[in-house]
Amino acid sequence: MLTQIWVIARKELRLWLQQPANLVVILLVPFLFIWIMGAVFGSSGMPTVAVFAVNLDSGTNAARVLSALQDSPNLEVQLVSDRAEADRRVGQGERMAAVVIPAGFSEAVLTDSGAALELIVDPARNERASIVTGLVNAALAPQLVDAEVARGVNRGIASLLTSQDNLAGMETGVLQEFLTAAFQGVVASQVQSAVEDPLVSLNLQPVGEGPSTESLPSLMEFLVPGYTLMFAFFLVSQLATTIVEERAEGTLRRLLSTPASKAAILAGKFLPYAVIASLQILFVFFVSSLFFDFSLGSSPLALAAVILPIAAVIAALGILIAALARTTGQSSGLTILIVLILAIASGAMSPNIAVPGLQWLTPHFWAIRGFQNIITREMGLSGALQPAAVLTGMALLFFGLAVWRFRFED
């Protein structure tokens, strides 16, 4: 049986290599898209997050907060006139979120109860609210320090004056202004020093779990796996169309007259495309590591543990579509539709347009998660196990359905 599978697989591989356009689609086109997207967003990091800002307060502190948001390199801020407009436009998906500075903010920020900004988040991208929150907090960090120092000085002076009779007649305005400025200068200097060279680092570690390994991927760590997978899945169309054409020409029926079983014939179709998909992913990853800011991680075994099952998913899906389609037109149209839906829903084309909930059902999502566990979070083989298991299950499901539904003749 293995000999029969090898004979069929070798023939399929030879036929595929006789079409140079195949190499262009899966090897060169991904680099073109990666290069374009990298040039648009810049390879130094993730693209900025676009938000609206509404300032309903006319005080100095509100103006400082707004200025800090506008000066942040990670936020693209557009001012709108009122909260209702911001709510409507965020709900329409124009921007991911809106930051609202409420009326009375400047006075409230100096009180013991403090003040609060309001963050309106697009419900379709609610799972990314933490990203916006983190960027806003980072932009406002100096303002938060100043406000906390000013509030502390006010509270301290009030306590001092009420407890010391000999200070009862002192002019407090000048003293308060002097102490506030002095403390803000000292504290701001110490905070900046602590940020640049912290004496103690904090890692969140839930009970019963190992050290936290969460880390945000760079732009290239999104683009390279995402576009590599998107174009690797075009192999699905090539495999499905080839099988449908062979069925229409009677080639599959003639194969049944050989000693090869139906399972061996389908395995012979499956194997070369799984190998091609694996080599394509390896090739694009390797060349990307040479020309782009992209790392291959420190565990080749972990990479292989994700690459092999996603390649198996690609080949199995191609056979499944061939089992469902009756004509080459159906095969081509169905494949393109499925490939694009999977790429968009999973976030492979862009993490900002993934479909929450549905993305968990796509092989792209699990493969990208595995690659980021290995490359970004440096989790090694342990980070590849869950994605590899899910992808292997998908491959077995697709191949099993294909064997069940497959017709060797019309």
Automatic annotation (TrEMBL):
Residues 189-409 form the ABC transmembrane type-2 domain. InterPro entries: ABC-2_transporter_component, ABC2_TM, ABC2_TM_bact-type. GO terms for cellular component: plasma membrane. The chain crosses the membrane at residues 21-41, 222-244, 270-291, 303-324, 336-355, 384-404. PROSITE patterns: ABC_TM2. It is a multi-pass membrane protein. It is found in: Cell membrane. Gene3D superfamilies: abc type-2 transporter like domain. Keywords: Cell membrane, Membrane, Transmembrane, Transmembrane helix, Transport. This is ABC transmembrane type-2 domain-containing protein.
